[in-house]
Amino acid sequence: MNILFCGDKYIEDGLIIAVSSLLRCTEDELHVYILTMKLESDGREFLPVSAHTAEYLDGYVKDQNPANSVTLMDITDMFNEELPVINMGTRFTPYCMLRLFADRIEGLPDRILYLDADIVCRRDILDFYYQDLYGVEIAGVLDYYGRFFFRRNIFHMDYINSGVLLMNMAMIRETGLLQKCRDRCRTVKMFMPDQSALNKLAVGKKICPRKYNDQRKIHRDTVVQHFTTSFRFFPWVHTMTVKPWQIERMHRELKLHEYDDILDEYKAVKACVEGCATRYV
Question: Measuring CA to CA, which residue among 81, 77, 118, 111 is closest to residue 96?
Fold first, then answer.
Protein backbone atom coordinates (compact mmCIF):
# COMPACT_ATOMS: atom_id res chain seq x y z
CA MET A 1 0.00 0.00 0.00
CA ASN A 2 1.10 3.52 -0.80
CA ILE A 3 0.02 6.03 1.86
CA LEU A 4 0.23 9.83 1.69
CA PHE A 5 0.25 12.22 4.65
CA CYS A 6 0.60 16.01 4.45
CA GLY A 7 1.28 18.60 7.11
CA ASP A 8 3.65 20.48 9.37
CA LYS A 9 5.42 19.50 12.58
CA TYR A 10 2.12 19.42 14.48
CA ILE A 11 0.94 16.29 12.65
CA GLU A 12 3.78 14.21 14.08
CA ASP A 13 1.74 12.80 16.99
CA GLY A 14 -1.07 11.79 14.70
CA LEU A 15 1.41 10.46 12.15
CA ILE A 16 2.91 8.07 14.69
CA ILE A 17 -0.53 6.80 15.76
CA ALA A 18 -1.81 6.40 12.19
CA VAL A 19 1.30 4.52 11.02
CA SER A 20 1.27 2.31 14.11
CA SER A 21 -2.39 1.43 13.53
CA LEU A 22 -1.73 0.64 9.86
CA LEU A 23 1.09 -1.71 10.81
CA ARG A 24 -1.20 -3.54 13.22
CA CYS A 25 -4.00 -3.92 10.68
CA THR A 26 -2.25 -5.08 7.53
CA GLU A 27 0.55 -7.33 6.40
CA ASP A 28 0.69 -5.61 3.03
CA GLU A 29 3.92 -3.85 2.10
CA LEU A 30 3.65 -0.28 3.35
CA HIS A 31 5.17 2.78 1.67
CA VAL A 32 4.47 6.03 3.48
CA TYR A 33 5.05 9.40 1.80
CA ILE A 34 4.96 12.64 3.81
CA LEU A 35 4.64 16.01 2.07
CA THR A 36 5.69 18.94 4.22
CA MET A 37 7.06 22.48 3.96
CA LYS A 38 8.20 25.51 5.90
CA LEU A 39 5.85 28.47 5.77
CA GLU A 40 5.40 31.96 7.18
CA SER A 41 1.89 33.36 6.79
CA ASP A 42 0.07 36.23 8.53
CA GLY A 43 2.76 36.47 11.17
CA ARG A 44 2.59 32.73 11.86
CA GLU A 45 5.52 30.39 11.31
CA PHE A 46 4.90 26.76 10.43
CA LEU A 47 7.73 24.25 10.70
CA PRO A 48 8.01 21.12 8.56
CA VAL A 49 7.77 17.54 9.79
CA SER A 50 11.22 16.88 11.23
CA ALA A 51 13.78 14.71 9.46
CA HIS A 52 14.48 12.74 12.63
CA THR A 53 10.81 11.83 13.02
CA ALA A 54 10.66 10.52 9.45
CA GLU A 55 13.98 8.70 9.87
CA TYR A 56 12.82 6.98 13.05
CA LEU A 57 9.48 6.01 11.49
CA ASP A 58 11.32 4.57 8.50
CA GLY A 59 13.25 2.26 10.81
CA TYR A 60 10.08 1.52 12.78
CA VAL A 61 8.11 0.30 9.76
CA LYS A 62 11.13 -1.65 8.49
CA ASP A 63 11.21 -3.58 11.78
CA GLN A 64 7.94 -5.22 10.65
CA ASN A 65 8.93 -5.63 7.02
CA PRO A 66 12.32 -4.58 5.56
CA ALA A 67 10.52 -3.66 2.32
CA ASN A 68 8.44 -0.99 4.12
CA SER A 69 9.50 2.63 3.89
CA VAL A 70 8.81 6.20 5.03
CA THR A 71 9.82 9.03 2.68
CA LEU A 72 9.77 12.71 3.68
CA MET A 73 9.44 15.31 0.90
CA ASP A 74 9.81 19.05 1.49
CA ILE A 75 7.90 20.89 -1.25
CA THR A 76 8.26 24.44 0.08
CA ASP A 77 9.48 25.85 -3.24
CA MET A 78 6.78 24.03 -5.20
CA PHE A 79 4.03 25.39 -2.94
CA ASN A 80 5.35 28.95 -3.22
CA GLU A 81 5.27 28.67 -7.01
CA GLU A 82 1.49 28.19 -6.93
CA LEU A 83 0.58 29.94 -3.70
CA PRO A 84 -3.18 29.69 -3.00
CA VAL A 85 -3.19 33.37 -2.10
CA ILE A 86 -6.90 33.93 -1.62
CA ASN A 87 -7.24 30.92 0.73
CA MET A 88 -4.17 31.45 2.90
CA GLY A 89 -6.20 33.00 5.72
CA THR A 90 -8.94 30.41 6.21
CA ARG A 91 -9.44 28.62 9.55
CA PHE A 92 -7.76 25.61 7.94
CA THR A 93 -3.98 25.86 7.66
CA PRO A 94 -2.44 26.07 4.17
CA TYR A 95 -1.00 22.60 4.78
CA CYS A 96 -4.36 21.06 3.94
CA MET A 97 -3.66 22.05 0.34
CA LEU A 98 -0.34 20.18 0.08
CA ARG A 99 -2.05 17.05 -1.25
CA LEU A 100 -3.14 19.06 -4.29
CA PHE A 101 0.51 19.00 -5.40
CA ALA A 102 0.73 15.20 -5.53
CA ASP A 103 0.63 15.16 -9.34
CA ARG A 104 3.84 17.22 -9.44
CA ILE A 105 5.83 14.84 -7.23
CA GLU A 106 8.14 12.61 -9.22
CA GLY A 107 8.17 9.06 -7.92
CA LEU A 108 4.70 9.03 -6.39
CA PRO A 109 2.93 5.83 -7.51
CA ASP A 110 -0.19 5.67 -9.70
CA ARG A 111 -2.39 4.56 -6.79
CA ILE A 112 -2.04 6.28 -3.43
CA LEU A 113 -4.24 6.56 -0.34
CA TYR A 114 -4.25 9.99 1.26
CA LEU A 115 -4.97 9.99 5.01
CA ASP A 116 -5.45 12.85 7.44
CA ALA A 117 -3.21 12.54 10.50
CA ASP A 118 -6.20 12.29 12.87
CA ILE A 119 -7.28 8.82 11.76
CA VAL A 120 -6.87 5.42 13.40
CA CYS A 121 -6.99 2.27 11.32
CA ARG A 122 -9.11 -0.36 13.08
CA ARG A 123 -9.30 -3.13 10.46
CA ASP A 124 -7.40 -4.08 7.32
CA ILE A 125 -8.08 -1.44 4.64
CA LEU A 126 -6.94 -3.55 1.68
CA ASP A 127 -10.46 -3.94 0.22
CA PHE A 128 -10.77 -0.18 0.01
CA TYR A 129 -7.25 0.32 -1.28
CA TYR A 130 -7.37 -2.28 -4.05
CA GLN A 131 -10.86 -1.51 -5.33
CA ASP A 132 -11.44 -1.03 -9.06
CA LEU A 133 -10.61 2.54 -10.08
CA TYR A 134 -11.43 2.31 -13.77
CA GLY A 135 -12.77 5.75 -14.76
CA VAL A 136 -12.35 7.01 -11.17
CA GLU A 137 -10.13 9.93 -10.14
CA ILE A 138 -10.86 9.84 -6.41
CA ALA A 139 -12.77 7.50 -4.10
CA GLY A 140 -13.99 8.39 -0.63
CA VAL A 141 -16.83 8.46 1.86
CA LEU A 142 -19.60 11.06 2.13
CA ASP A 143 -18.81 13.89 4.52
CA TYR A 144 -20.96 13.37 7.62
CA TYR A 145 -22.27 16.95 7.71
CA GLY A 146 -21.28 18.31 4.32
CA ARG A 147 -23.34 15.71 2.44
CA PHE A 148 -26.49 17.60 3.49
CA PHE A 149 -25.31 21.10 2.59
CA PHE A 150 -22.93 20.72 -0.34
CA ARG A 151 -23.87 18.80 -3.45
CA ARG A 152 -23.91 19.34 -7.18
CA ASN A 153 -27.26 17.57 -7.55
CA ILE A 154 -29.97 18.39 -5.01
CA PHE A 155 -31.33 14.83 -5.27
CA HIS A 156 -27.98 13.06 -4.92
CA MET A 157 -25.49 13.23 -2.05
CA ASP A 158 -22.01 13.34 -3.55
CA TYR A 159 -19.89 15.57 -1.27
CA ILE A 160 -17.07 13.41 0.04
CA ASN A 161 -14.81 13.90 3.04
CA SER A 162 -11.24 14.13 1.82
CA GLY A 163 -9.61 12.84 5.01
CA VAL A 164 -9.55 9.30 3.61
CA LEU A 165 -9.09 9.67 -0.13
CA LEU A 166 -8.00 7.01 -2.60
CA MET A 167 -6.35 8.76 -5.53
CA ASN A 168 -5.93 7.34 -9.02
CA MET A 169 -2.86 9.38 -9.88
CA ALA A 170 -2.60 7.98 -13.41
CA MET A 171 -6.06 9.31 -14.30
CA ILE A 172 -5.59 12.51 -12.29
CA ARG A 173 -2.50 13.35 -14.33
CA GLU A 174 -4.51 12.80 -17.51
CA THR A 175 -7.50 14.93 -16.47
CA GLY A 176 -5.43 17.59 -14.70
CA LEU A 177 -7.72 17.44 -11.65
CA LEU A 178 -5.17 18.60 -9.09
CA GLN A 179 -3.89 21.39 -11.33
CA LYS A 180 -7.49 22.60 -11.70
CA CYS A 181 -7.90 22.43 -7.92
CA ARG A 182 -4.72 24.45 -7.35
CA ASP A 183 -5.90 27.06 -9.85
CA ARG A 184 -9.26 27.30 -8.08
CA CYS A 185 -7.60 27.63 -4.67
CA ARG A 186 -5.61 30.59 -5.97
CA THR A 187 -8.64 32.47 -7.27
CA VAL A 188 -11.80 31.38 -5.42
CA LYS A 189 -12.21 31.71 -1.65
CA MET A 190 -13.74 28.56 -0.15
CA PHE A 191 -14.68 27.32 3.32
CA MET A 192 -12.61 24.13 3.06
CA PRO A 193 -10.43 24.96 0.08
CA ASP A 194 -8.89 21.63 -0.89
CA GLN A 195 -11.93 19.49 -0.11
CA SER A 196 -14.33 21.91 -1.79
CA ALA A 197 -12.18 22.12 -4.93
CA LEU A 198 -11.87 18.34 -5.20
CA ASN A 199 -15.61 17.87 -4.86
CA LYS A 200 -16.41 20.65 -7.32
CA LEU A 201 -14.00 19.61 -10.05
CA ALA A 202 -13.71 15.81 -9.94
CA VAL A 203 -15.44 14.19 -12.91
CA GLY A 204 -14.69 10.63 -11.82
CA LYS A 205 -15.72 10.36 -8.18
CA LYS A 206 -16.69 7.14 -6.40
CA ILE A 207 -18.72 7.06 -3.17
CA CYS A 208 -17.68 4.28 -0.78
CA PRO A 209 -19.28 2.79 2.38
CA ARG A 210 -19.24 4.76 5.62
CA LYS A 211 -17.05 2.17 7.38
CA TYR A 212 -13.94 3.33 5.51
CA ASN A 213 -14.11 6.82 7.03
CA ASP A 214 -16.27 6.83 10.16
CA GLN A 215 -16.41 10.49 11.15
CA ARG A 216 -19.02 10.55 13.90
CA LYS A 217 -18.46 7.51 16.11
CA ILE A 218 -17.16 3.98 16.03
CA HIS A 219 -19.31 1.12 14.69
CA ARG A 220 -18.81 -2.63 14.76
CA ASP A 221 -17.69 -2.63 11.12
CA THR A 222 -15.53 0.52 11.28
CA VAL A 223 -12.33 0.14 9.26
CA VAL A 224 -10.97 3.68 9.70
CA GLN A 225 -12.10 6.06 12.43
CA HIS A 226 -11.61 9.73 11.61
CA PHE A 227 -11.58 12.09 14.60
CA THR A 228 -13.25 15.12 13.03
CA THR A 229 -15.08 17.96 14.77
CA SER A 230 -18.66 16.96 15.58
CA PHE A 231 -21.73 18.60 17.07
CA ARG A 232 -23.13 17.65 20.48
CA PHE A 233 -26.61 18.62 21.64
CA PHE A 234 -26.49 17.80 25.37
CA PRO A 235 -26.45 19.53 27.77
CA TRP A 236 -26.18 22.36 25.21
CA VAL A 237 -25.43 22.66 21.52
CA HIS A 238 -21.67 22.73 21.06
CA THR A 239 -18.86 21.35 18.94
CA MET A 240 -16.42 18.72 20.14
CA THR A 241 -12.97 18.03 18.78
CA VAL A 242 -10.93 15.25 20.35
CA LYS A 243 -7.84 13.94 18.58
CA PRO A 244 -6.30 10.47 19.05
CA TRP A 245 -3.20 11.82 20.84
CA GLN A 246 -5.38 13.58 23.43
CA ILE A 247 -5.57 10.37 25.39
CA GLU A 248 -7.17 11.64 28.61
CA ARG A 249 -9.89 13.46 26.67
CA MET A 250 -10.51 10.38 24.54
CA HIS A 251 -11.09 8.35 27.69
CA ARG A 252 -13.06 11.00 29.57
CA GLU A 253 -15.17 12.63 26.86
CA LEU A 254 -15.50 9.93 24.23
CA LYS A 255 -15.44 7.00 26.69
CA LEU A 256 -13.22 5.29 24.14
CA HIS A 257 -10.61 2.70 25.15
CA GLU A 258 -10.64 0.78 21.87
CA TYR A 259 -7.16 1.97 20.90
CA ASP A 260 -5.32 1.83 24.21
CA ASP A 261 -2.78 -0.69 22.92
CA ILE A 262 -2.02 1.53 19.92
CA LEU A 263 -1.75 4.58 22.17
CA ASP A 264 0.68 2.74 24.47
CA GLU A 265 2.77 2.01 21.38
CA TYR A 266 2.48 5.67 20.36
CA LYS A 267 3.86 6.82 23.72
CA ALA A 268 6.81 4.46 23.42
CA VAL A 269 7.58 5.51 19.83
CA LYS A 270 7.23 9.21 20.67
CA ALA A 271 9.72 8.82 23.52
CA CYS A 272 12.19 7.22 21.11
CA VAL A 273 11.64 9.97 18.53
CA GLU A 274 12.27 12.66 21.12
CA GLY A 275 15.38 10.78 22.26
CA CYS A 276 16.89 10.59 18.80
CA ALA A 277 16.05 14.25 18.14
CA THR A 278 19.09 15.29 20.20
CA ARG A 279 21.29 14.09 17.33
CA TYR A 280 19.84 16.85 15.15
CA VAL A 281 20.33 19.71 17.61
Answer: 118
197 vs 96, which has greater pLDDT? 197
CA–CA separation, 54 vs 73, rounded Å? 10
Residues linked to residue 31 through DSSP beta bridges, in sequence order:
2, 69
164 closest CA partner among 119, 102, 219:
119
In Å, how far are 192, 229, 233, 251, 265 from 238, measured between CA atoms?
20, 10, 6, 19, 32
Closest CA to 60 of 27, 16, 2, 93: 16
| Phi, psi values for residue 207, rounded to 5° | -90, 130
Q: 277: pLDDT confidence band, cut at 50, 70 and 90?
A: low
Give the torsion through C-alpha atoms of 55, 56, 58, 59, to 10 deg: 120
pLDDT for residue 236: 46
- What's the CA gap between 89 and 93, in Å, rounded? 8
First to last CA, the chain: 33
